[in-house]
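Risk register update: the risk that structure generation would not scale has been downgraded. Supporting records follow, first protein first.
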Amino acid sequence: MRNITIGDNEGNQRLDRFLRKYLPGASLSLVYRLARKNVKVNGERVGSERMLCAGDEVSLFLGEEKIDEMRRERKKTVRAKRQFRIAFEDDNVLVVDKPFGLLTHGDSREKKNTLANQVLGYLAEQGVYDPASSTTFAPAPVNRLDRNTTGLVVFGKNADAVRDFNKMMRISGDADKYYLTVVKGRLTQKLILRDRMVKDGAQNLVTVLPSDADSGKLMETIAEPVEYQGSYTLVEVRLVTGRTHQIRAHLAKAGYPVVGDAKYGDRVTNRYFEHAFGLTTQFLHAHRIRINRGEGSLTYLSSSVFESELPENFTRILQALRREARGRGARR
């Protein structure tokens, strides 16, 4: 038998969800069977939907070897060399600047060198997170970026911070996410794009449909021009919703494809940017998060702004476009 005292980071969740995290090697059916027959909370049998609170004692009536076998996956500590920069950090939140080419979470091809693992390694080194003693909780990102999109990712260091920041990301007006991108075409006025999207999971592609379509998820994107350079525009984008490939698919549908974007962009433009500047992926950077209203444990973050500068190669491309535009103007 093993007794587990629920801590602050494990409270406020159902018993079955706690067991699924505590015993990652157990099947879902086994978790529910254990909840019915092999688990007590504070000495009493309870249902799998029982909400746990900090201070509760969960008694697991299984042999220690069996428990360890089902927890073995959780005991693994993956360390990866740190590549991110810290934009902001306090006791609850860590805001990091994700570089190009790094996954936020692992996938079928890459499980070790991810931003999440790098952050866990950093927090373990700082003594903030101990994977060996943590029952089920691990610091987690509340937003994510594509592998080749750079910029700000927010991690909650404790369960309350993760829950409250996730809530802020869901509630319209609580937090605004801004991106910088260069698009093909001269965007001269603010765009407010409202449509629906359907994702093809097999192809990892998004199709944009009209807002009055019968299917698809609603998405809203606001794009404002920052500066024009010849046939291209530096644009600041605010995401009102956060759908897969939203910025790239939405701007392409509006006639302003992101330069370098292999999925939704213009092939001729992409070849030019690759030849002239060595750009082989989309020019897209998550450069600012503004907290308008903090929730719960993060109320104190109200009016906070987190920012990230453009990566060096993006800045170099912008400077080259400016020089080209000035040269064309001088020749006229």
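Supporting record for the second protein:
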Amino acid sequence: MRATFVHTADNHLGYEQYGVKERFNDFARAFLAVVDDAIARQADLFVVAGDLFNKRAIDALTLIQAQSALQRLADAGIPAVAIEGNHDRSYYRDGVSWLQFLCWQGLLRLLNPLVREGVPQLTPWDQEAMRGAYLDLRDGKLRVYGLPWYGASTARILEGFARELAAARAAEEAAGVEYRLLLLHTGVEGIVPNLHGLPTRAQFEPLRGLVDYVALGHVHKPYCIDDWLHNPGSTETWGAEESAWERGYYVVQVETDVPPGAPRHAAAHIINPRRPFIRLLFKVDGLTSPEALYEHFERFCRAEARGQGGDGPVRAGLEPVVDVGLVGVLAFDAGAWERAKLEECVKRHFAPLVVRLHDGTRDTEYDPQGDEAGDGRDRSTWHQLELAIFQELMARDARYQPNAARWAQVLAEVKQMALGGEDPASIAHLLRTARAIT
């Protein structure tokens, strides 16, 4: 059997990043580019490994974007198969997700097995019930399994799922199944620092030999392990910390008529077109006046813009998002410099769609002990007082008391993000990460 499938994940349709409408459209354009490439390649299958949407409650325009893209696949005769990610799942009080709605519209098949006592039941896709653990395609030779987001229970689910697959292996072979693809919305522990609570590499091992290709989602950074676990990354830049990652999607060529031990697929990672996202750090140490700050920042922006390809827009017709962080210790009053002047400087050199300026500096006026230890910690009286208050408040709650000091640091960071104008999704992401590791 020969087949071609496209694997994408974390498309996050509907994300109006920084409140900018053009960023809302960027996420749709990125997904459409993947869809159009699948059509151009005449793919046999299109799979979405979770988080097609950015949030559970979407608006009408986001739904239209999804319907339009999936209709293109349907018109081309390419079946779309998806699973729900943590951003897609319905609220418990609603009971129905928008992915289920798209399934009812006939635009995709949504795999979601029944789970009994922690074990997914290997039931085939039922068109009337619109539910099932797997779907057979290509005359039954290609089997697609799907496991949606299970959060902290994922490792236990994988263990039970592997047992069920092993027990069903003989029946699979008798049915003529030649290739097995698993959609799974989770990551692998250790790929992204500080993102914890994911299955370890060893916890995937029971699936070895039972599944030919594991199509992952959830983590926005692309990676491939043993040409078996594949994660394409998000199709657009969901957060500034992701700007250095070359994300995209996979195009996979399957060939089952090969000698024993030979590769049964070839997976190519494709970087899809998207808006440039530039993240910069500007150090203010040693600058003794606002005028010196402006002068050095001007030179900094000029050099960085030249390094990106010129003093004008980074890419013709596609203005970048520019995220600049100011770090270090100011040698003058922090209230003496004007944010607008620095933002205007960025606009002159980068012609950006959006300018994000984050003030992470410290003022020596409130740093009486300085940084004599050289460890970069902020010893300002106000900062220490703030941390002490946060720690006292957290210690009053038995749930947080054992890690009150750590939670005080988190609250201080949340405060700075809010004051710096960070979007709520980024703040929520920080809190979720903190809960996972604290």
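DSSP finds ten helices and 17 strands in the chain. On this basis the risk owner (M.S.) recommends closing the item.
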